[in-house]
Amino acid sequence: MHKNLIAGQWYTGSGVRGNVNPSDLDDTVGLYAQASRDDTLVAIAAAQQAQPRWAACTPQQRADALDFIGSELLARREELGHLLSREEGKVRSEGIAEVTRAGQIFKYFAGEALRIRGEHLASTRPGIEVDIRRQPVGVVGIITPWNFPMAIPAWKIAPALAYGNSVLFKPADLVPGSAWALGEIISRAGLPDGTFNLLMGRGSVVGQALLENPLVNAISFTGSVDTGRLLMQTAGARFAKLQLEMGGKNPLLVMADADLDQAVQCAIQGAYYSTGQRCTASSRLIVEKAIYPAFTAALVEHLNHLRIGHALHADSQIGPVAEAAQLEQNLEYVATGRQEGARLIFGGERLQRDTAGHFMSPALFVDASAEMRIAREEIFGPVACVIPADNYEHALALANDSPFGLSAGICTTSLKHASHFKQHMQSGMVMVNTPTAGVDYHVPFGGCKGSSHGPREQGSYAAEFFTTVKTAYTQA
């Protein structure tokens, strides 16, 4: 059994959870301990005691620890990528790429640990000097989703540690294997006991304890809007610092002047790769009417050639849905789309393969409207709808008609439209002639409206959340 890491020791917890391969339901990945509320309280106390010791370490010591973690992730990328794909269901090439990204993130923040910036300013008063410095926010609770079980924990844990915070890491129940593997590497990086704690367990138990405890100074969360609201009501009520990433309903605009092949590739990769289980997935394809027939026909042609299968098979391009409940939800949305009057022209069916798994054909609706649920609600699966637009202005209005604002893309050869779109699209990230899903680790990640709350993630902007600013005045 794989145990939790609390105060530098491995704990058995209050129960055990099995981890099942969504490509082969007869394959159990492993058994993982479930932390109790009491375990969580012990971890919180340990994190509070360890944080000053970790903050007192030199920037070089923190950089060396993070570099150690990043180097091991990169050295073991194929092994850990295999594990990731086995438990989460994304194809092996994507699993390896995600572990690689996690390693790169830790190495990037190893450098950031050496570049913690401050300012020295002259005062408006004579004889006084002003220093502005960044200090750790303290004890940080990190709650992550199942769809990127290595990359998302990495881009939260690495900056938290780089800036001198202690960490309480609660991964998603569905993917404890990747979390444990990452935690085991971190346990050997030379951090003071209690600086990093791994708490696998139920959100209603572990997560709730983190939200309520006044010793947890900040919480970084990626997950659903409903859970984000709960964090606001619970942790926000006690003035904990919050960073929330809560999803998207991302549009891809296809203009009449677009390169058709490029637009189709952007749509296929953005909407269906990783089985559509990305908060940045292109689930709304807003297409100018002049190119609408040609685009939809080309999209169907490409969908016909996509290979859906076991995540670890070399010829698979798209793996299974991550779990049975998510598959059922996807199929319910397909039925809803039909009931609302959209036309299903491809897929949307449960698939049978050589192994029992949660396989689904990618679904494509056409003639959808912005009012339909399939065009407004995040489905989090391989389901996309095509919405016709009269012109660029109409397409932009449709794109902005959403409660979300994470990522948005446009396919066009018009510099005018591209420039206008980058300025006027209501989203935190905009893509021109590239898929809406796919971001760099050294630049800010985040959205607006119902997609995000609090400071941005990734890159140097991560300092805004994981540090607090102090202003010091000195009489010379």
Top-tier CATH class of the largest domain:
Alpha Beta
Question: What is the CATH homologous superfamily assignment of the largest domain?
Answer: Aldehyde Dehydrogenase, Chain A, domain 1
Taken as a percent bin, the fraction of beta residues is 15-25%
Low-pLDDT runs of 5+ residues are none
- Rough outline: globular
State the domain count.
2
How many strands in all? 24
CATH architecture of the largest domain: 3-Layer(aba) Sandwich
Helix tally equals 15
On the 0 to 100 scale, the average pLDDT is 97
CATH topology (fold) name of the largest domain: Aldehyde Dehydrogenase, Chain A, domain 1
Structural class: alpha/beta
Strands of the widest sheet, in order across it, are: 14-17-18-13-12-20-21
The largest sheet, given as strand count, sense and whether it forms a barrel, is:
7 strands, mixed
Q: Kindly state the percentage of residues in helix.
A: 25-40%
Radius of gyration: 23 Å
Distance between the termini: 60 Å
Q: What does it look like?
A:
This protein has two domains: 4-246 and 451-475, Aldehyde Dehydrogenase, Chain A, domain 1, CATH 3.40.605.10; 250-432, Aldehyde Dehydrogenase, Chain A, domain 2 (3-Layer(aba) Sandwich). The model has no long low-confidence stretch (mean pLDDT 97). The chain is α/β, with parallel strands linked by helices and 476 residues long. It has 15 helices and 24 strands.
